Structure formats: structure tokens, C-alpha cells
Amino acid sequence: MKYCLDLCKKPIIFDPLSDNTEIFFDHDYCNLVTVKNKGENGITLQSFNSVVNISFRVTSLKEICRIKFSKKLDILAVQSSKSCIEFFNIENGVINNSKYCQLCKSNSEWILNFYWTSDYEVLFITNTSLQLYQVQHCYNLLVPLKICLIKAEHCHWEPSKHQLFVISRAASTYNITIYDIDSSINKIACLDVPKSELSSATFKLNLFRFFSLNSTVYLCTFRKLASDPTIVLYKTTDQMASLAKSHVLELPFDWKCRDISLAISIVDNLVVLHNKEFKFCLLYDVNIISESRENVNHVVCIVSSCSISPTMLQPEAIFRRAEPCHSAVPIQPYCDNWAFFHPHFVIDLELGCMWKLELNLEVCISVIPDPLVLVRFLVNRSGSRDLLLSTLQKIAFQFIESNFDHEVDKNSEEYWQMVPQKALSPQSDISVLAEMINIVVNTINKEEYVSLDLNQKVLLECMFLGNVNDNRWSNEDTKKLYKIVSDLFWEFLRALTESRIPLEEETEQLLVDCIVKSEEYHQLTLFLLGKIISNSKMTALQLLALHSNFNQADQIALDMLKRTRDTREVLLEIFLSKNDPICALRYALGKDDVWSDRDCDANGVPSLAKKLLEVAKKTNDLLVFHSTFQHVLSLKPCTKKEAVGKKNYKNLKQLFAADQHRAWPAGAITYRSIDAAPSSLPPLRISDLSGIPCQYTEPKSGLRFATSAEYSRICDLPQDVVNQYLAFRGVTQDSFFSAIN
Q1: Whole-angstrom Cα distance, residue 382 to residue 392?
Q2: CA-to-CA distance for 538 and 615, rounded, in angstroms?
Q3: Which residues of 256-277 are buried (b: 16+ CB within 10 A; e: fewer)?
Q4: Burial class, 293, CB count within 10 angstroms (exposed 0-12 / middle 13-18 / buried 19+)
Q5: Most buried of 154, 272, 370, 594 (most Cβ within 10 A)?
């Protein structure tokens, strides 16, 4: 027998059930409460969710029907009778002397259950009404918030959604009313289920319950008609507007022929049916596509005849007994003392242990023969990403080893004639792999019901390439391997496109790499011309490396770069590396940013122009060199980026501040001595240093400048250089000073 379920390694140890010890389990927050001698010897709270365990004593308890702690563990609520609930405040792990209670409104009313809906709000469910109270523990009283009249027979509280499901009986139907509890009681929907669907004996069974699968609430019922037991699931919609019969869990034949004792657990979104008599269980996955009859999915168990693995309980973990235990105690599954609690807890009342059920994925993989069902099963499990990827890789590699003779050696023309109609025959093994890829791709695009963190990057890390470079394969076999891998990638891209998932650049690069290594260049040409592979810089660079083996790759790569943004520099470098200055010059014509964005030398010549001249000189063709040289001469010289018509000059306040730090001689004319500031509009003046339009004039030398850098340079110029600049403009320094005076 396969053991697909395990007990957790660290169970919760508590006092065993006895005449003086009572055990209570809170289904809402999965807390285990142990009460010794009506609280006089202590009350202990233990849970897998909370790290701190609480233990204290209460001396005033007489009878305990239910006991629950608030979310903050600072208030203890105890139902002492059918009509009374007592409250105790907890401070620093100790109950103070204050006690306050809440009674029913009338003598004919009794409490069915109560729930903590928030930190200080408690909901009473009675046989006649729903009562929401606010607990003011500072004043030791309860304040009613809202009361809703309803006749309830069964109820279920869903803490994650803050919703209450109440079932009441009508003439011919059962009414299921859904309430939203958030500081008030708001009715969401009222659903009707015929009595023919739910037998009257259903409510007496433990199998009637609500549970959550993939954030969806289901109603589970157990029907037994003519010795044919059936488990039916009713699914609630997202808007809680309807409750429809969605799934029927098919039971084995030997389960139907006799009365059996069943229990239900929910482990990692799997429905687990426990057969206590046969001591094994069945696993059902309602998310896997199953046979549909009258819009109801009849789900077959995905793993049958499995059980819970036996374990050993260490002696130090066993509680105190009359006879000390010095050896480990074996734990056999499905013993008579076991009790199953929602969603996945097992409690041994005699031994005093509580375990969580855990799914053993490695064993499940070995017992599920169908690869498609296995992939769907792993996709819906949490923490199964590595197992899923290794399973895909293993199945694909097995297929690659077994299909060299009849799949790989197909003629390429016949293959591509077959692709438009149907890429792969449904009987072939590769079609199974293609279906697996569709399952995983749909998982990537899903926003709900997914427990895995899958994306294209994760898939590419192990996409059937780990064993391709094995030393046992020859070079010819390696080409065939890459041919199969490229076919798988083709199915992967097709599945992504059908699911409307944008392709990542790494995915296309890996596809091109597989096709190139398999030397299927005709297939690569069809992919490129058919725009299956989008335009990208990295793909184009891969194609340029194939020039010696694939002549068309060079031109295809250049066309791809021309259609891609931000690739002008790459294109120019490619043309220059091929010693083709005419193509580079033809591409650069009309693109001013190619020239202006590049660095210029001291003479204002762009570096691109110098590279063009050097390449043209290497061609030893006078006509090519002359054409390139004439175009370079027609360029406007520029020295720096700030000289291309940009207003980078400083304002007057900055110039005055810089002028104060200069060591001017006595009586020299400075900016601070000028009465009128220059005009705010740029005049039609030309800088003496750079030749661009300027706005300012240096007062000492009379030279015009446009930027602060030119101003600093003018201040450091000797007098003879200043006179040369002025003479070039046709003025002298004396005429300048006489003009401003």
C-alpha cells in the first residue's frame, strides 16, 4: 500500500481524555483547549498557528458546553448552559476576578453556537435569531449591535470571508442564507435546495459540512439511497448568488456494498475520504477535468487505496503516565482512538496527540500513471514547482530517447506541410507533451486557484535542455535532440499565443538557439518571415553570428534591426565592421540625432564622421572616399552638446556672485558697476569664442560670450589674445570702452 499522507513531525502533546480532563477543539481558529477538573487545575490553549501556549486556572466553572478564545487571546468565552455564555478577561496570562455573562432573550430560546467575528465582537446563533454583540471588556458588559430573526438548524462560520451560512427548514426545501458579518448583519443571498437533494438524515451525519477549496466555499452532503452512498458537492458562486450542484465524488464498488464509517479532510485543496474500517483513504481533486453528466462533474479518485504512513512517537514527547515509557511508541494509522477534525487535523484522545495531515507528493507521483493527470495534479499543489519541472523534464527526455527512429527523421517539407492542419498527431507521444505545455501555460496566466509560482523564466531554466549535452550522444544525435527540443518550443510558443500571454525575449532567444544547433535553417526562416519570432536586438545579434553557415541570416538580421527601436548605433557599427561606409552613410542620412548625440573633437567634427572617413580610406576607392568626405564637409561643426542652440548661460545673479571672487584692479569695470542690466531677450549677437548666438559681454575685455564656461575662459586670456578676438570682429578695446561710456 502506498502512503500518500504523512503525519506532521512535530505534533501537539496534551493531557489525554479522562474523567477529570475535557478536550475541546475550536474549528474557527484551529485551537485545542484542555480543561482539567472544570478549570480548577488549569485551562491550556494549544495551536499550530500560535507560538505561545496559554495556561491558567478558573475556579468558578460548573459546566462547559463550548469554550472559545478571542482572536487576541485576551477574552475567554464559555458556554455553561443552553441559554448562558460567560466571559472572562485575561491579563498577562492570568484571569482576573471579573466575570460577566449574556443570557438568551426568552425562556424558549437556546444557543446553538457562537463565533468570535472580530477582536471584540461575538455572534450568537440561537434557534430563533442571530445576535451580534460588542464585548466591552473594560466595563465587563456586552452591547447589542444587531439582532436578526431567523430559524436556524445548522450554521457554518467562514472566518476568511467573514460570512455566515445558516440552514433552515421550509415546507419542501432547505433554505441556505448567507450573511456578511462586519460590525453588522447583512444578508447577501438566500438559496434553496430541494429536500429530495438533501435527505432528512443528512444533518445527523458528520459528513455534512461546509469547507473551502481554492477560496471557494463548498457544501458537502452525504446521501445514501438504496445502499448506494453518494457524496455531493454544491458550489457557491463568487457573487454568492446561487448554490449549484457541481461535483459528485464517485466511490469504489466495495464502499457501496456495506455500511462504512467515513471522515473527510481537506489537504492542500484535495478532498480526502477516510475509511476507518478498511484503514485507507481516497484522494479527489475537483480542479481536474472529469466526466460531466447533466452539468455535474463526476470526479473519480485520483489516488485510490492509499493510507497514512505509520510513524514513531518519541518517549520524551509522550505525556506523563502511571508507567513511564522509555522507548518510542509506534503510531498505526486509523486506530480506534483517532478523531478527524476540519480541515486536516487528527487527534488521538487516549494518547494525547494532535497531528496535521501532510501530502507526500513524491509518493503521489509514483502512483499516478497518466502524465496529463499528473501534471494537472502537480500544478494545483503548493510547493510542487521543482517536482513539476523535474517531472516534465523526465517525461520529455524519455520521449526523446524513444523516438529517434520514427519521429526525428521526418522530411522537413512533409513536416511543415503537416503543421498548418494539425501540428502533431493526437496519437504521438509529443502531443502528450504539447498538452502538458498547455496546462502549464494556462497556469501561468491564471490569477486564482493556483498554488505555484510559475513564469517563463522558471520554465526556461529546465526546459528539457539539461541532458542534451550528455557525452553519450554523438554529434548527429545531438542535432536530432535539438530538433525535438525545437518542436517542443514551437508548441510552447503556440500555447502562449493561444493563451494571449506576451512572449518574453529570453523564450524566443532559446528557441532560435535550439533551431540553430539542430541546423534547421529553413524552419528558422519560416519563423522569422511569419513573424512568429518578434523583432529584438538579441535575436538579430544571434542571426548575425550565423553568416558563415546561413547566408540569409545577415540580411534578415539587418532588416530586424531596422524595425527595432534604439538600434541605430548597432546598425552603424555593423556597417562599419563590414567596411561598407556607403550603407552606413545612407542609413545615417536624415537622422540628425545620429550626428548630434555623438562626441565631437576639438575641431567640432563628430566621431562618426571620422570613423566613416577611416573606413572609406581602407576601401582604396577614390569615389567612395570623395562621397564620404563631401558629406562630412557639409556637416555643421559643434563642439559640445551645450553649444547646439541650447540656453545654458547663467543668470545675472550667478554671474555677479562669481564676479566678486575675481581680483580686479582698482577702477576696473565689472558687472556690479553697470547701471543697466542686459536685456532679457537674446540679442542677435555672436559669441567671439564659439560663434553661437550669445547674450552677454565681458566688461573688462569687451568679448562676447554665451555660457559661464566661456566667461571663465575669457577672464584667463592674456591681453594679446583678447586683442586678436576683437580685431577679428573689427573693433578695438578702446572703441568698446568709449561706446559704453
Answers
A1: 17
A2: 26
A3: eeeeeebbbbbbbbbbbbbbbe
A4: exposed
A5: 272
- The dihedral sign for the CA sequence 511, 512, 513, 519: positive
Cell output for 573:
557599427
58 close to 39: Cβ distance less than 8 angstroms: yes
Q: Which three cell numbers stand for residue 189?
A: 443571498
Using CA atoms, how far apart are residues 98 and 164, in angstroms rounded to an integer?
31
Are 254 and 229 in contact by the 8 Å Cβ rule? The answer is no
Question: What does residue 84 show for φ and ψ, rounded to 5 degrees?
Answer: -145, 140
d(CA 334, CA 340): 10
Asked if 142 and 123 count as a contact pair (C-beta separation under 8 A), the reply is: no
- Strand-pairing partners, residue 191, are 176
Which range scores top for mean pLDDT: 63-72, 116-125, 501-510? 116-125
- 228, three cell numbers: 448506494
Task: Report the C-alpha gap between 299 and 280 in whole angstroms.
Answer: 19
Give me the count of residues in the chain. 741
pLDDT in tens, 305-335: 889 998 888 766 565 444 556 677 888 888 8
| Beta bridge mates, 42 | 36
Residue 406 has pLDDT above 70, yes or no: no
Three-state SS for 378?
helix
- Residue 689's contacts (CB-CB under 8 Å, 6 or more residues apart) are 703, 705, 710, 713, 714, 725
Query: Mean pLDDT highest for which of 60-69, 244-253, 300-309, 525-534?
Result: 300-309
Q: What is the pTM of this model?
A: 0.61
φ/ψ of 392, rounded to 5, equals -60, -45
Residue type, 200: S
Distance CA 124, CA 131 (A): 5
Strand 296-299 with 243-249, pairing: parallel
Nearest CA to 646 out of 698, 701, 690 is that of 690
Q: What angle do CA 231, 234, 236 make, to 5 degrees?
A: 155
Task: Report, in angstroms and rounded to the nearest whole number, the Rg of the chain calculated over CA atoms.
Answer: 41
At residue 598, the 3 state secondary structure works out as coil
Q: What cell numbers appear for 109 in the block?
A: 430560546
Q: Classify 541 as helix, strand or coil.
A: helix
Measure the CA–CA gap between 468 and 482, rounded to whole angstroms: 8
